[in-house]
Batch of 2 targets.
Target 1
Amino acid sequence: YTAKQSRQGIALYAAERDPHRTDRLGLLSDLRQAIADDVLELHYQPKISLADGSLLGVEGLVRWRHPSRGFVPPDMFIPLAEQSDVMPLLTQRVVSVALAQLAAWNERGLQVPIAVNVSPIDLTGHRLTDLLARGLEDYGIAAGLLQLEITERVVAEETAELQEVLAELNRMGIPLSIDDFGTGYSSLLRLKTLPVGELKIDRTFVSKVCESRVDVGIVRAIIDLAHALDLPAIAEGVETVQQQEVLRSLGCDGVQGWLVARPMPAEQITDWILQRRVTSLDARRGLSRATM
Ligand code: C2E
Ligand code: MG
Ligand code: MG
Ligand code: MG
């Protein structure tokens, strides 16, 4: 009975006791491999102005098709990545896919901003600002076309380093959007001093806006707060016309959700944007599609 055997025994025993742990470790190493193999994709979902139906931009959402598990949702692997050194690698891939897409659209005369999600951990140190500065330069992209969505969790964190990174992004001209607003604990003072350009109302409130007076009240309060701060409010997860109409009546500025469109792969969103542009041009010329 050697020390080595006993260690193996413990390892096996531990894995058996906590199958989820080995599962998570397996998933994380598969994710690392997926990043190395460059197989992560971005899907894009439009954000639309409620005032005139114009396209405000698209949000890039990471998609991972696992070789044996099939599609793994980001909510399952982003938290794992965040607890490891994988997150910066993932963000790097996502940013470079978004920049390449912006460059491809530029070439076709399309100027549609892409918002990418970044994690709190991405905002420590200067890795992200360096990456963005280099990327925008390499691809020849105007800073305003790449937006960052940061969750309200970030806003609640009050560190000098974070403040500095957000100020630097602001100096670079990169717009910031506060994601999942209403689920965190940001103070009004922090909100007022941060260089942000948009509040996104979390889907949990939006989804109940037709059923619950409390949720209507919360959504109204968030929209009013955004406007008091001179920021547009964008509702996420809008699925029905009824929800959209309630949001419109509350003065919401923009919507994103399945009602407008589901997140789509690059070619599909490009067609969607071009199609929409043609239709809105027709509308302005007073032509209906039927007369074409
Ligand atoms: P999020 O940034 O709040 O993104 C919105 C989520 O709501 C997306 O889920 C989107 O597919 C979903 N959604 C949009 N419209 C509707 C709707 O009408 N109904 C419903 N039920 N859902 C809708 P997804 O793509 O699964 O992403 C989940 C979260 O994972 C994101 O939430 C974001 O926090 C994170 N995430 C996604 N991609 C990335 C990424 O590239 N980097 C980082 N750091 N996080 C990401
Ligand atoms: Mg987001
Ligand atoms: Mg969100
Ligand atoms: Mg959300």
Note: The CA atoms of residues 5 and 11 lie 10 Å apart.
Target 2
Amino acid sequence: MSTLPANVVRLPHTNQIDALLTIIRDKATARGDFIFHSDRIIRLLVEEGLNHLPVVDKTIITPTGNEFKGVGFKGKICGVSIMRAGEAMEQGLRECCRSVRIGKILIQRDEETAQPKLYYAKLPPDIESRYVLLLDPMLATGGSAIKAIEVLLSNGVAEEKILFLNLLAAPEGIIAVTSKFSKLKIITAFIDEGLDNKKYIVPGLGDFGDRYFTWP
Ligand code: PRP
Ligand code: URA
């Protein structure tokens, strides 16, 4: 994708991120290494996501007795993971935001048609008053993300308060989500070439959930 939609942020292509992504894309990478290096990218995504939260002026007194005019986060946040793969991103969020509330949405893609099916959603009761970090490592056709966003909106979350954190995206998924939702933000580590005939991201990394949770 040469031009990114205005509401899409891609992590900078540093040597570190390129090397981490190369490790997790490699089919020879064993599960332990896949988890370790995915977690490192997830941490970078969470940190970048937090950069996009609004702040308000806050003045504090330092131990030298001097005043410092700084800022503090403006609102409350929560995480929402799209199960199963999105659950892999919860720990990275907890490492940055201790005791953060986390909701779950269970959406599964049909293996034949790639159509998403919503099974279950359990969200913090006051979610409409929070910024939501929506967690899913893979954005392929965009079907699962769109369904999850619709669940958030129907629970009173304002679209501009949604930050979708994603590890690998296909242009098809980016276009599908941003053409429907122009006010939320997508923060992704990498945008790949496209989708294969089974709607897997190419070159991609395979099935993230399998590689993180059940790969040999
Ligand atoms: C994967 C992935 C996304 C979805 C992306 O989940 O984690 O949720 O596919 O594809 P889409 O953009 O075409 O909807 P999957 O349904 O395979 O379940 P899993 O999390 O259990 O692996
Ligand atoms: N889900 C995955 O885990 N990988 C893909 O490439 C597409 C959907």
Note: Residues 85, 138, 140, 200-201, 204, 207-209 surround uracil (ligand 2) (CB under 6 Å).
